């Protein structure tokens, strides 16, 4: 029910953005609004990093103070593109300015990654591998939470098998445009267009189909049906959000 409501809200927002993209973009010009968005982003990212990287911190067996430092760096990295990303929506920003903003985002992202590399040492490679798998981990965690306490609840073995299935499939499945792991500083007005977004969801639908096929080996039929519905809802919500972003970025590009 919650996912259905979120889908409806996003679709309504998409319809609004098509007729009022200038108004939405204008919000990002307001200094107070931008500061509020940044504050909200920071408030959300702390708990999100705590949850999504919990397995990584456990894997490395980091002492609490070291884990806290890594979390701070991850939060810093997540904030890098927030302010400059909002600037991309400004219709007065031309291609050259977007290119400069992209370079700045990449430079600051690379600087945080260098700090992580120095601190983690040999474990940095494990961090990068974990970071790439984060979208799939978030997907699995959302489904786990959704079915917790029901007859379709996943056991620890199924959780592990689902993550392994995702990792194996992702290794050989190449997306034309990887919106989940874009290059730092990539120009969103070039990434987010109708053709790329449509192609992405054509490929994502095929990926999900193959993932469900793999999941038949360890999920019961009722669990598989629930997971299939979860993936469908995720695609619908992501598509609505990305189409709205594409509408706004293409308006800003003109």
What does the secondary structure layout of this molecule look like, with pairings?
Layout: H1 2-27, H2 31-52, H3 54-60, H4 64-87, H5 95-120, H6 124-147, H7 156-172, H8 188-191, H9 194-215, H10 221-253
What structural class should be given to the helix and strand makeup? mainly alpha
What is the global morphology? globular
Can you give the helix content as a percent range? over 70%
Low-confidence stretches: 17-21
Features:
globular; 254 residues; mainly alpha; 81% helix
Write a brief structural summary.
By secondary structure, the protein is mainly α.
Task: Explain what this protein looks like in three dimensions.
The chain is an all-alpha fold. It has one domain. The chain is 81% helix and 0% strand. The chain has helices spanning 2-27, 31-52, 54-60, 64-87, 95-120, 124-147, 156-172, 188-191, 194-215, 221-253.
